[in-house]
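The protein record passed on below.

***
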Amino acid sequence: MKKYNLPLFSVLLLFDWSLAAEFSPVIETTKGPVQGLVLTTIRESKKYHSYRGIPYGKPPVGYLRFSAPVEVDPWTEVFDATKDGPICPQIYNETFVGQEDCLNLNVYTPQIQENLLSSVVDRVKLTARNILLSLRFLKSLSKKEKGKEETSLASKFYYGPDYLIEEDIVVVTVNYRLGALGFLALQHQNATGNAGLKDQNLGLRWVRDNIAKFGGDPNKVTIAGVGAGSVSVGYHILSEKSEGLFRSSILMNGVPLHTFGFITPEDTVRKAYEFAKELGSTATNDDELLKFYYQVDLESLTRTVTNSTQMDFSLKPTLENPNYGPDWFITKCVLQLFGNHNRGPYIIGYNNDETTAFAEELENIRYYINKSVPLISEFKRGKPEKLDIEKDVTNASIYKIIKELDFVAPVDFTQKLLTNFNDTIYYYRYDFGYNKSLHDIIDHFDIDGETRADEIKMIFYSELFQVNPKANNSMTLLQRRMTRLWTNFVKYGNPTPDGTNDTLLNIVWPDSRNSAELTMKRYNLPLFFVFLLFDWSLAAEFSPVIETTKGPVKGLVLTSIRESKKYHSYRGIPYGKPPVGYLRFRAPVEVDPWTEVFNATKDGPICPQIYKEAFVGQEDCLNLDVYTPQDIVVVTVNYRLGALGFLALQHENATGNAGLKDQNLGLRWVRDNIAKFGGDPNKVTIVGESAGSVSVGYHILSEKSKGLFRSSIAMSGVPLCVWGFTTPKNAARKAYEFAKKLGSTATNVNDLLEFYYQVDVKNLTRTITESTQIDISLKPTLENPNYGPDWFITECSLKRYYSGNYNHGPHMLGYTKDEAIAFAGSIDDIRESVNETVAFVSKLLIENMKELDLGKKTSNVSIDKVIKAVSEIMFMAPIDYTQKLMSKFNDPIYYYRYDFAYNKSLHKIIDHVDIDGAAHADELEMIFYSDLFQVNPKANNNMTLLQRRMTRLWTNFVKYGNPTPNDTNDALLNVVWPDSKKSGEMLWLNNDLSVHNRYKTLIMDVVESNLKFFGGVINGCNINWNKI
C-alpha cells in the first residue's frame, strides 16, 4: 500500500474558532430563542442567516413512536442553531443512521430585518420574503442490497440553499419520520399511519407561526418536493389538514397516483404483520402487535422495513379511519379528493429518463418490467402482450416502457385532473443530458439521459455535485435559468412574470391549461420552501469501510472546492470514552470497541464552549475526522476546552492539561490507525494556530508525545506566551474563584473537586469563559508527577528549551504582522488590551515604560502604535525568543511573518474590525476553505495566488520537512525559504515571497531580556515537586 504523509490538524481545532464565525441575531420563536450563523453563498458571496436544527416537535418516542407529532416544549436559554440537528432513523446505503429525537428544521434567510427583532412589528412597512418549504423524498438503490432506501437529510451539506438565497427568498427544510416510524399503519388509534406527513404538517404550522420573525411572509409559502417528497406535496394539496398553510406547490417526479405513492389500509396492515413476524413477533391482534412495535429494537425495525422491492416502498401513505380520532391526515381516496383540494398555482413535471436512477444493472430494469405487467393488468389498461414486454425486449425499449408506465403516465394524468378545476399549472419535462449528471458522478451509471434527481444540482449546491457554479457553460446557464424560474414561481406564482423581458430566460412559460402538453427542453424545474429532505442517499457516494483498531467506520466521497478532486471524508470517529462523571477532569481513556459499521458521514459533537454568547457542545466529544486524498492525509481532533480541558487542582483526579492529553490520545490513535487510511504514521506533522499553536509547543516539549510526530507547525503561539501558561498556584487560585462564583463554599481540594463534578456544564463553561481580552481563564500548567503516571508536562518550558530535552524538528513557526487587530473590536477593546499589556510588562519588571508610551493617557496613543506594541509583547517577542532557543540545537526551523493585508481578511469580514493589516488568524483562509471566508478559490488575483503559494509551502513541509525542496525550480514559488538558524532569517508572506533578516524592535528586545532573567519565575522553573 502506498504511504501518504499526514499533517495532524488536531491542534488547530475549536479552541479559538469563534474568530472565524459571525453569529446571526437571536430570534424569539414561539417556543424559545434561537441563534445561528451568518454564511455566504458560493456563487455571488452574498451573506445570509442560517438557523439549523430548530426543534418543532417533541421526541416521538415511547407511546408517541407512531402517533401524530406533538409540539415541542418551550425553552428559555438561547438554542444553538449553528449546526444540523439529528436526522430521523434510516438506512444510509448499508449503514443505520439517525435517532428518534429528530423533529427539527432549518431556516435560511437572506436578511433579518431590524424591525423583526423588536417587540412590535410594523407589518405595513415590512417587505417580507417569499418562503420555500421543500419536502424531499427519493428512493435510492443500495449497491449491495439491491433495494431502495428512504433517506431524509435536511442538511445544508446536501441541500445548500445558496442559489435560492441569491434570488432573495427564505428556504426552510424539515426532518420528519420515515419508514415504519413514519408510515406504519395498523388501523389502531395509536398507529393510524401517515405520521411522516403529519410531521411535515406540523413543520408547516411552525412556519406559519414563526417565519415572519425570520423575514418571511407566512402567506407566501411554496411547498416543493422531488420523488417521494413530491408525492408528499401531492398529499398536502389533497388534505384539508394543510389548508391555508401554503400558497403554491412544486411537484417534481412524483404524485399520489404513483404506485409507490399509496397503499391500501388492508395491505399496510398485512405488511405490518409480515415485518413483525420477521422481527420475532407472535402477535395475533393489533394491540399485541403495536406493543411489540413499541419495544422492538430501532435499528432492527429500520433494516427490516427497508428491505423493499426495487420500484416500491415497503410502507407508504394510506387512508385513515376518522373514527379513531381527530389526528387523521387523509381519509378519502385520491381520485375523490380532486376538486376539493388546496388550489394552485402548481409546477408539475418529470425527467425524460426517470428509470435510469434504478438501472445499476440491466437485470434491475427487467425486474421493473415484470413488476409493471401485473400493474397494467390490474388497471385493465388493455393487452400488455402488445407491448412485447416479456419477450425480446431491447435495451432501448426497456427504459421507454418503464418510464411511461410507472413515472410519466401518473404525472400526466394528475396534470389533466388539475386542469379540470381551472388551477394554474406549469408543466415541464427536464431533458438536459450532461456528462456530470448526478447519476454519472454519484451512482456511476454510464447511461446517457436525464434520470430522477439529476435536476437537483440545478437548484441546490453541494460539494458532492462536482459543479463549479461560477463557470460559464451550458450547465451553469441552465442552472441560473432554472433557479430563476423556480424562484419567480415562489415569489409571484408565475415562473416568467416578465415575459420575454427577462433576458436570462427570454421565454414565456405558459399555463398548461392552454395546451395539451408542454415539453420544457433545456430548462425547467422547481423546488422550494420547507424543503423536506427525504431522499438524499441518491446523491451520496460512500467511502470504503475501514477497520480501525476499535471498529469499522464508513464515510463519504467528497470533491475539493478548487480543483474538484475526489477525497474520502470520515468524520466524528470516537477515540476516547465520554469524559463524564469521575472522568470529567482526568486524562482520557480509550474508547470501547464496536462491531457495527460506524456512521462517519457527519461531524461529531464538539466539546462544550461558548460560541460568542451561545453555549454549544456536549461532554461526549472526544472524536476526530480523517480526510484522505492522494497526497496528504488531514486529521482534525476535538478535545476538551476551558474547565473541562484545563482545570488544575493539584489533585490526582484533576492535575490539569486534560485537553493536551486528549490531543495526545488522538495522536496515538493516528499512530495505530492512519496506515489504513493511506497515511504514514512515521510522517506526521502537527499543526496549530493561536492556542492550538501553544498546544503544538507543549507536544514538542513533552516526552509523552515522543515518537508520535515528525515535524510541527506553530502559527502565532508558543508556550512562552503569557497567555499560554499559568503556574500551579495560580491555577488552583482560579479554581477556587470560579467555584465561589458558581456557589461553592468548599474549603479543601476534595470538596472543591466534588463540587466541580456536580456543577452544570453550561454554567461551568459560561463562568470560566469570562476571560480578559487577550488572555485565557484556564491554561496549561505544570503537573506534580507524584500524583501518578498520567501527567503531560512536569518541567517548565524554559528548562526544556535550554537543555534541548524535547522532540526535535524540523519545525515551522511564525506570526502575523498585526496580531492584536483581532482583539480590537472597538477603541475600548484596544484600550483594555493596552491596560492588560501594561500590567504584564510590569510583571516582567520592565522599567523603561516611557519609551513605550503606553501609560496613563492611552487616548493620545495612536491605534497603530498600540496594536504594534500589544502584538510585539504578547506574540512576536515570545515567538522570536523560542526560535532563538530552538536554533541552538541545529533543528531546521522555517521562520515566517505573514504580512498580507486584504479587504476580505478574516478580521474584516467576520469580526468586522475595519483596521487594515494582517491580524491574528487571518492566514487561516490561505490554508483552509470555508464558506464563512467569502473567498472564491478559483479566482485569479493576489489573494488566491498567495493562497496557492502558502498551501504549497505548508504541504511541501509536511511531505519533505522542507517548504521549498526544489529550490527555485518550483515556478509557483520561485523562492528558497532558508533554515532560519541563529541568524533568524524569515520568509515574509505578502504579494511577493521574500527573505528578510530577523525582525527586531525595542519592545521585543526588552521582553526577551526579561524572559531571560525573570522568565523562570513566571514559568514555574523554581518548583520542587518533592517539597510540595
Notes: Residues 395-419 form the longest helix (25 residues).
